[in-house]
Amino acid sequence: MVKGVLGNLKNLDSKRESIFALDATAFYQGFHLHSNSTCITTEMVYNEISHIQNKFSILESLISNKRLKISESSKKTIKLVQNIAKKIGESRLSTADVSIIALAKDYNAILVTDDFAICNLVNAMSIPILNLGTRGIEETRKWIKFCKSCGNGYPPTLTLCPICGNELRVRYKKIKTLKDKFKSN
């Protein structure tokens, strides 16, 4: 699957070499082994995949050959990612997820992932995505918490209805213009 995806990347802007920001799923799919392009990731993502002991020497070789760079994003960009995630109610992101999204934004990189929560947020932020094992997402969703009993909507931080005490449920609303709303200058 990865080789087929890489073969289709010839349509990318040929004037510059593409930079790929790799989420843990990109490493599990073997993207780093088949790409000749510059790949970046964060320390948090690298730590997530550290249990792949038999392939660790390959990762260290890629780092020493400068084909894989471990970097960190700016605090300003991390804050931006967290704010947009909060606005669309995307609460399923780990700190490693936030770090790789921010890194892709900072480097103007293509984010390689199959994680639907990450795809939802980067779609809202107009960050290019490359999915390897899935078709990706076709719509951006805003997640909304609501009480099934009294029908009131609540922010994503609450788990119980403050009026009737029932557990809140989650539903989504399709967002079409979210990309334009959150574009940063």
Question: Which architecture of the largest domain per CATH?
Answer: 3-Layer(aba) Sandwich
Percent in helix: 40-55%
Question: What proportion strand?
Answer: 15-25%
CATH superfamily of the largest domain: 5'-nuclease
Number of helical elements: 9
Describe what you observe in this structure.
The chain is an alpha/beta fold and 185 residues long. The chain has 2 domains: 2-130, 5'-nuclease (Rossmann fold, 3-Layer(aba) Sandwich), CATH 3.40.50; 140-182. Helices cover 40% and strands 17% of the residues. The protein contains 9 helices and 8 strands. A 5-stranded parallel sheet has the order 3-2-1-4-5. Helix 8 (116-124) links the parallel strand 4 and strand 5 (129-130). Helix 6 (75-87) crosses helix 7 (95-107). The longest helix is centred in the middle third of the chain and has 13 residues, at 75-87. The two termini are 35 Å apart. Mean pLDDT is 78; it is low at 1-15 and 177-185.
Quick tags:
185 residues, Rossmann fold, five-stranded parallel β-sheet, disordered N terminus, 9 helices, alpha/beta
Q: How would you briefly describe this protein structure?
A:
Helix content is 40%, strand content 17%. It is built from 9 helices and 8 strands. The strands form 2 sheets. The protein has a 5-stranded parallel beta sheet. The protein has a 3-stranded antiparallel beta sheet with strand order 7-6-8.
Sequence-ordered SSE layout with sheet pairings:
Elements: H1 2-7, E1 19-22, H2 24-29, H3 31-34, E2 38-41, H4 43-48, H5 53-64, E3 68-70, H6 75-87, H7 95-107, E4 110-112, H8 116-124, E5 129-130, E6 140-146, E7 153-154, E8 169-175, H9 178-182
Helix pairs in contact: 6-7
